[in-house]
Amino acid sequence: MGRPPVLRFAVNRGLPLSTLLIVALAALALGAQASAAVPHKCQRVFDKALAEAAVTDSDIRDFTVAKNWDWARSGRRLVGYSAWVGLQGCKGSVVIDVSRECSFQQSYVHGACRIKGLKSY
């Protein structure tokens, strides 16, 4: 099998391993930034739910989407997604649940945050 092509290229050209390491780390960093910039397929639904809750971009501390699985005897099946939106002004998150086809299901607040019109758990 041998060495991966990039490593084989670097070694064959006499490049120091430290140069290869720097290039590899830079490529990983750029790749992580590029993948973070790609919106989730349900992003419009998440954005609409946040707008209806009067949550602005400046209110958002972090944004994570989790897959929701149904574990049946025949294996697991993707049933939807939950967006967990951490908020700046309080210790908690807005949670937005959607189906796997991106149909809105519910939104609520988890933790010590309170938002008018959303249930809190």
Principal-axes shape call: globular
User: How much helicity do the residues have?
Assistant: 25-40%
* Strand ordering within the main sheet: 1-2-3-4-5
Mean pLDDT: 81
Q: Provide the gyration radius in Å.
A: 21 Å
Uncertain residue ranges? 1-12
Major sheet details: 5 strands, mixed
Strand content: 35-45%
Note the quaternary state here.
single chain
Tally of domains: 2
Number of strands: 5
- For the terminal residues, how far apart are their CA atoms? 54 Å
**SS field, number of helical segments:** 3
Reading the helices and strands in chain order gives: HHHEEEEE
Helix and strand content put the structural class at alpha+beta
Structure description:
With 121 residues, the chain is of the alpha+beta class. The protein folds into two domains: 5-36; 43-120, no CATH class. Helices cover 31% and strands 36% of the residues. It is built from three helices and five strands; from the N terminus they run αααβββββ. Strands 1-2-3-4-5 form a five-stranded mixed beta sheet, with helices on one face. The protein is globular and about 45 Å long. The protein starts with a helix and ends with a strand. The model is unreliable at 1-12 (pLDDT under 50).
